[in-house]
């Protein structure tokens, strides 16, 4: 799928610094503190059955689903918070956050508005997050 690079609010960088060891243990390596936001044409339902960071793990306060991806030929990870998946977070479901060991804007020479190609490494809808009637992650 394709999307366009878009500036974010910068909040994930703060959490990735605070939770550096947790992200490294889940992903097998340290990540650059921050994400590259990609705006998709259509909303994307995100799987929760790949890699999970649950609320209460470490100092984490919100559930996060992470899946492997390839962006412009570079292996990375896409993530989404449960709140964003349920429509109560900072981003709509048309925004995909991508993290890597490097600052992707610099490594891939990207600026706002650039089109990128992104492939997610999941193939089923079996692990989609189910939201409750009040748009909160169900069972969380």
Q: What are its keywords?
A:
single chain, 140 residues, alpha+beta, Elongation Factor Tu (Ef-tu), domain 3, 17% helix, 29% strand
Briefly, what CATH class? Mainly Beta
Mean pLDDT: 84
In DSSP terms (H or I, runs of 4 or more residues), the helix count works out at: 4
Taken from the alpha-carbon principal axes, the silhouette is globular
General description of the model:
This protein is of the alpha+beta class. The protein has a single domain, classed as Beta Barrel (Elongation Factor Tu (Ef-tu), domain 3), CATH 2.40.30. Helix content is 17%, strand content 29%. It has 4 helices and 7 strands; from the N terminus they run E-H-H-E-E-E-E-H-E-H-E. It has helices at 11-18, 20-27, 82-85, 104-107, and strands spanning 2-6, 36-40, 51-53, 64-71, 74-81, 95-99, 115-120. It has a 6-stranded antiparallel β-barrel with strand order 1-2-6-5-4-7. The longest helix is centred in the first third of the chain and has 8 residues, at 11-18. The radius of gyration is 14 Å and the shape is globular. Residues 122-132 have low confidence and may be disordered.
What is the element layout, followed by pairings?
Layout: E1 2-6, H1 11-18, H2 20-27, E2 36-40, E3 51-53, E4 64-71, E5 74-81, H3 82-85, E6 95-99, H4 104-107, E7 115-120
Antiparallel strand pairs: 1-2, 1-7, 2-6, 3-4, 4-5, 4-7, 5-6
């Amino acid at each position: 799928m394709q999307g366009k690079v878009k500036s974010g609010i910068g909040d994930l960088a703060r959490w990735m610094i605070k939770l550096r060891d947790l992200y490294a243990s889940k992903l097998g390596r340290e990540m650059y503190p921050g994400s590259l936001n990609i705006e998709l044409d259509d909303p994307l339902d995100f799987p929760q059955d790949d890699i999970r960071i649950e609320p209460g793990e470490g100092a984490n306060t919100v559930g996060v689903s992470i899946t492997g991806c390839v962006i412009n030929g570079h292996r990375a990870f896409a993530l989404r918070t449960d709140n964003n998946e349920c429509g109560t977070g900072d981003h709509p479901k048309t925004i995909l956050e991508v993290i890597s060991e490097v600052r992707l804007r610099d490594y891939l020479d990207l600026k706002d508005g650039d089109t990128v190609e992104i492939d997610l490494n999941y193939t089923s809808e079996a692990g989609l997050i189910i939201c409750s009637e009040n748009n909160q992650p169900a069972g969380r």
